[in-house]
Amino acid sequence: MVQYQRLIRKGEKLRVSVNEKGGSFAGTVAGGGGFSKIAKPKIILVLFLSFLSCCYIFSFSSFSLLNAFSRGAQGFGPYEQFIAPLCSGTSNGTICCDRSGFRSDVCIMKGDVRTNSAASSSVFLFTSLGKKTNISQKIKPYTRKWETSVMQTVQQLNLVYRDRNDSSVSESDDGHNICDVFYDVPAVVFSTGGYTGNVYHEFNDGIIPLFITSQHFNKKVVFVIVEYHSWWVMKYGDIVSQLSYYPPVDFNGDKRTHCFKEAIVGLKIHDELTVDSSLMLGNKTILDFRNVLDRAYWPRIRGLIQEEELEAVNKTVKRVREDRFKKPKLVILSRNGSREILNESLLVELAEEIGFFVEVLRPDKTTELAKIYRCLNSSNVMIGVHGAAMTHFLFLKPKTVFIQIIPIGTEWAAETYYGKPAKKMGLKYISYKIKPKECSLYDEYGKNDPIIRDPKSFTQKGWDCTKKIYLERQNVKLDLKRFKKPLSRAYDFSMKRI
């Protein structure tokens, strides 16, 4: 890919082409003023050249027509109807915002788009306004617009029209309107603020909407991040690199003016941890998103496998023998602190008795995502207690088994945020709702307390009440005789597939 840098002065433009892979640049100079004398051609030569010209024009027109059909077949048509339906057919020199969505607002800017984070948190659209009065827009580019409390923490952007013919504008802005970096591709502007830091919200509110909003650009797009976090870029850089050829831009930290031919401000979101194919250009699904994860993590996984093979050269014979007796792999996604499986060691023993090869996965904030992906991608069954870590079901292969243990008071959230999306991804989903005696709160309050007997009376009071009682103070001690049934179902299902 090629990144362009352009210095703009009054009356002239200078564009420097920089090879993204570190190659040298190339410049061309066109000059005029000298004419060479050409002998008067004969009439036959004129006719012959005319014939060649007609052939060239015809072939070029035919190629262009075929190319147009080809682009249409590949889904390169207008994207607005999928990303911002009310902005379909947005004309050049226009800012259009679609605020009809319940979850997010999305604005489209087409024309000469320039960032200006230095003082105004603005994105400018330079156009010839004349006597027209165009209304500027404000937007918070985050996908939980209904949730007032968190949206108050998200940075607001001003999308502002500027008249390129107004000389007073450039003089008053101290040169901030001059393009320091020019991209020949669109921008997608979004925030990594809000609930960022929670893996569920990082995927649901950020990564999947980023795929939905940008995948039709086929990586020819620049991500401009408001409330930029270096750790976020490091954690999700492998995924981001599969969606864009360009390094992301720190909107607030990079004081240069970045210029684009168009921009999408805000992200489109469909539902919890999913992609609705009917709302996607090219009918993409959540499985297409999962393919992005595959491409993102497999290079690193191959490296991990090679490292392990070098360490285990002397264990080769043992590995071959183990491979003869293939067992389905079960991964227990372990928790500490709250919603912990108190008899986890006994669960491991039960699963091994049934016939599983068991791996206990204890990820933390520093665990490399590629390692988590490798572990789950190679498994046949995943077990975990409801919580943000269940987002990792996205790392499972389709037609594998996901068993979600559902604590008291979390039924709706467990099914909405993880159960339904898992089914949409093609997983064999099994929900295991614990009984009161399997809950640590039972020993604390007794069976007749409303917390145990009538959880809805507390969950209806709001999220804070649910969080304090059922999420932060509840652990699980599984009735293994009862849990053996779904575990055996999972084993039988896995063995049939193996």
Describe what you observe in this structure.
With 498 residues, this protein is α/β, with parallel strands linked by helices. The chain has 2 domains: 205 residues, no CATH class; 187 residues, Rossmann fold (3-Layer(aba) Sandwich). Helices cover 37% and strands 19% of the residues. Strand 13, helix 9 and strand 14 form a beta-alpha-beta unit. It is globular. The two termini are 43 Å apart. Pfam families: Glyco_transf_61. This is EGF domain-specific O-linked N-acetylglucosamine transferase-like. Keywords: Glycoprotein, Glycosyltransferase, Membrane, Transferase, Transmembrane, Transmembrane helix. It is found in: Golgi apparatus membrane.
Strand content: 15-25%
Distance between the termini: 43 Å
Low-confidence stretches: 1-41, 56-76
Average predicted local confidence, pLDDT: 84
- Strand tally: 17
Number of helices: 16
Radius of gyration: 29 Å
Count of structural domains? 2
Largest sheet: 10 strands, mixed
Helix proportion:
25-40%
The rough form would be described as globular
Structural class: alpha/beta
List the helices and strands and how they pair.
Blueprint: E1 2-9, E2 12-19, H1 43-73, H2 80-83, E3 94-98, E4 106-116, E5 122-127, E6 137-139, H3 148-151, E7 157-163, H4 167-172, E8 181-182, E9 187-191, H5 199-214, E10 222-226, H6 230-240, E11 249-250, E12 258-265, H7 286-311, H8 316-324, E13 329-333, H9 344-354, E14 357-361, H10 369-377, E15 381-385, E16 401-406, H11 411-424, E17 428-433, H12 440-445, H13 450-453, H14 456-459, H15 463-471, H16 480-497
